What we know:
The complex is a heterodimer of chains A (369) and B (364). By secondary structure, chain A is of the alpha/beta class.
Amino acid sequence: MLRRLLGLLRKEGVQFLRDPVVLFLILYLYTIEAVMCTMALTFEIKQLPIGVVDQDLSVGSRHLTDLFTLTEAFELRRQSDSSAPIEGWLEAGEVAMVLVIPTGFEQAYQAGIHPSAQILLDGTNSNVAENARRYAMAIVERFAAERPPLPTGAATVPSVPMTRIWYNPDQETAPFMVLSMMALAAMLVGAICPAASIVRERERGTIEQLLVTPIRVGEMFAAKTIPTLIVNLLAIAPALLITRAFDVPVRGSLTTFVVLAAVFQLSAIAFGVFIASISRTLQQALLLAFFGLFPVMFLSGTFTPIESMPPFLQAASLASPLRYFMDIALGVFLKGAGWAELWPQAVALAVIGSILFMLSLLVFRRRVS
Amino acid sequence: MNLRRLTALMGKETRELIRDPITLWLALLMPLVMLFLFGYAVTLDVRRVSMGVYDEDRSPASRELAQRFAATENFSVARRFASMHEVVDAMQRSQVRLVLVIPPDFQQRLTTGPRAPVQILVDGTFSMTAALAAGYAEAIVRSFPTPPASTLNLETRVWYNPSLRSANFVVPGLLAVILMAFPPLLTALAIVREKETGTIQQIYASPVTSAEFVASKLVPYGAVALIEMLLLIVVGTFWFGVPFAGSPVLLVSASLIYVLTTVAIGLLVSTVTRTQVAAMLVALIVSLMPSFLFSGFLFPVFTMPFSMQLYSLLIPASYFMEVSRGIVLKAADLTTILPNLVVLAVYTLALFALASWRLRQKVA
């Protein structure tokens, strides 16, 4: 039986290596795509184009304008002393935010009345708008703090927050992005390659030839999946170099990570095998994989926080292998977690993988006989 | 171009498409599934962040502060800790993302002054949400027991999407992304399949010209893409209640150009790949992923490094994103979106020219 398996494995290995384009694309996903995403993707506000309408032209208004333009977050693109051009700026997308300082701003300050300023936001990207507003608030708070306080009512003792960010004190996005891109690549490749290799045999009819030999369905599945597993595990190496380049700390054990990555990849492969077992043509399999992967990625919490999703989507996210692997990757790299902390995730991955494998075996046997 | 040959070829393509009901269903259903996933779940706002409370004070004041956290939508108190050791353990296991630590003398300090510090511990691994969660937590603490008096009012007005609903910007953006998902893939697979099975040789041997071949693929897949587009517009407007500020007719006519762009990308992909797996991966890498990640759909372009901003200019979805968001949210008219449309049209023509040139080379 071992000889049969080895023979099959050799055939599959040769077939896998014969398509250098696919190998190159896999490498591309693991490296170049990961680097591009890490470099480019962030929700942080940086150089947001803003406009300032200063109708007051006073010391105070100029100081407030300076505070807005001196931060890295905003970049002054348009300036005016009348509110007429605002609509045009926003309409054309030249600026995403406009600060309006009305006439009488400084006077109100001197008179001890609460002065007010205004910001106008382009809400088309609501996430950006929300972040920009938060930044603007912070700047205004700083402005107010630098000025002598206005007389207020009864003084109370304030409680003061002292915030500590653990595991990632500088609030870098890079570690998160690198690790999630690595996980996404593993999921994609793990699902697509075995699915394609199984369905291709079925489409060409060569699967009948395999099935009349003493080879069992389970052995065939094993031979179809092992090359993908090996390629995927090897691809971790360049990905690790990239994490190095982006200064992602490795606080846990890499061996633990590789073992857990293998468990994850088996569940991704099981997903691919399942798709192969229910589709008739390669085209169907690829389309199914493509669109099956979308919810899997989407529900993993990679792009949006799971806690903010509606309850039914949160429940669905429990079936996404990526969700557990993100916990594992972030846990090992950033938190220094090991088996003691991560076993529930490992068990969840193993359960998802086994259920999918079992289902595929069942479906496949029924279809063949 | 010969009209009879063209209709015959188109008939063949259409029959092939209809004969595979699974593919057709996928093509029409999946965009809707994606629309629902995105429409419901794309919000980066943090809600119900699972947090823990380590209350060393156990006083009425500390209980009141913890209660303020529990009362907001942003946090849900999942654990109460009795020691710092438990806190560390729960953070390591990702059971809580934020911990409020109230020191033993909290209530006393609130009465004696000058300040009563409390500690907020935040799990920084999910960096995008960590900052938001920390911000909310700090705001709650600062306004305890009474909100601080501010010296300067900042009025905020949000234009185009005053409620800051994410569905309003996700749905029009999604038109640009989803059309980059399906039509290029479907077109590329349809042609590469003919290559893999060898039937393309028969086409090469027939009098069919490469332009006719391209056109015959274009019409049926373009039609599918257009139906997808209409479905998305209708469901987005009526189910998600996205206010449609501009002219629907303008949007549909603009999307006609974009549909052609997507099919053209599929054609070009098919001319550079030999196997369906490779075609799919290439389609993924050149169409869906950049449209999703680098076109300004979710992640703003202006924060990207300059090189990546240039890259985003190469992505057709960036232009159509401007068009669809402009029409739906800002009621943009033809003159405003015209530059984007021109770019798309030129882009599409170039793609078609390149694709049929590559095809002709193959034949010769």
